[in-house]
Write a structure and sequence with these properties.
This protein has a 3-stranded antiparallel sheet with strand order 1-2-3. Helix 3 packs antiparallel against helix 4. By secondary structure, it is mainly alpha-helical. The chain contains 11 helices and 3 strands. The protein folds into 2 domains: 123 residues, no CATH class; 73 residues, no CATH class.
Length: 218
């Protein structure tokens, strides 16, 4: 049978909290003797500080609590940084018409220049960024199916986009000349207009794709 919560387990000790929070760097050993209420207080205090602090002061506090942070907190910090940096870059490009330097991005989003530089350098290999990209990849088949449907209904622009997406236009076979215009595709001496495409069957459209990609006719 588990022991019931006592008053000491429910009430944070000001002295213990001041001692821990006064440390330059908090380790797991430093919080071993804290009760649930004291641990909860430190968690809430840390959340408040992360929301309030900016620039290098925020970096220092993150370094201070790094060892005792939960993985979910690390993920939230990365997501926050990614979001505010992305929004800052978007705003600054809209305002100035050019890519802003890192120190301007940092000033705009309230992060340190070091944090911005580190994020921009390493975000492509970060697990959360890779997971985000997988979400976009998950939607590719559905979007491509919609483009294919439009192409089969005679939409020349959709047909061209479909061919480009599957790598067709860049993998054309030798001696095949393709002229791309807004309203038609010309393959050698054959002109395919929007009206032509509407009259073709799905099998014929597939054959056109094979010809353009350099797979068919070999």
């Amino acid at each position: 049978m588990e022991p019931e919560n006592t008053l000491s387990n429910l009430t944070p000790s000001r002295e213990k909290l001041d001692r821990v929070l006064g440390l330059q760097k908090i380790t797991l050993t430093d919080i071993e003797d804290l009760n649930d209420a004291e641990r909860n207080y430190i968690a809430e205090f840390s959340t408040e500080m992360l929301q309030r602090l900016t620039d290098e002061e925020r970096d220092k506090f993150i370094d201070k609590i790094a060892e005792i942070m939960l993985p979910s907190t690390n993920e939230q910090i990365w997501e926050h940084n990614h979001l505010v940096i992305s929004r800052a870059i978007e705003r600054l490009i809209a305002q100035n018409g050019s890519m802003p330097p890192k120190f301007v991005i940092a000033r705009e989003c309230g992060l340190s220049r070091q944090t911005v530089a580190k994020h921009l350098t390493g975000y492509k290999t970060h697990p959360q960024y890779l997971a985000e990209m997988e979400q976009f990849k998950y939607m590719v088949p559905k979007i491509l199916a919609n483009v294919c449907k439009l192409a089969c209904n005679g939409d020349v622009k959709a047909a061209r986009l479909y061919f480009e997406t599957v790598g067709a236009i860049n993998k054309r076979r030798p001696n095949t000349v393709i002229n791309e215009q807004n309203n038609y595709l010309q393959i050698n001496k054959t002109i395919l207009s929007q009206e032509n495409l509407k009259q073709l069957s799905k099998e014929q459209l597939n054959q056109i794709e094979l010809i353009v990609s350099g797979i068919g006719g070999k």
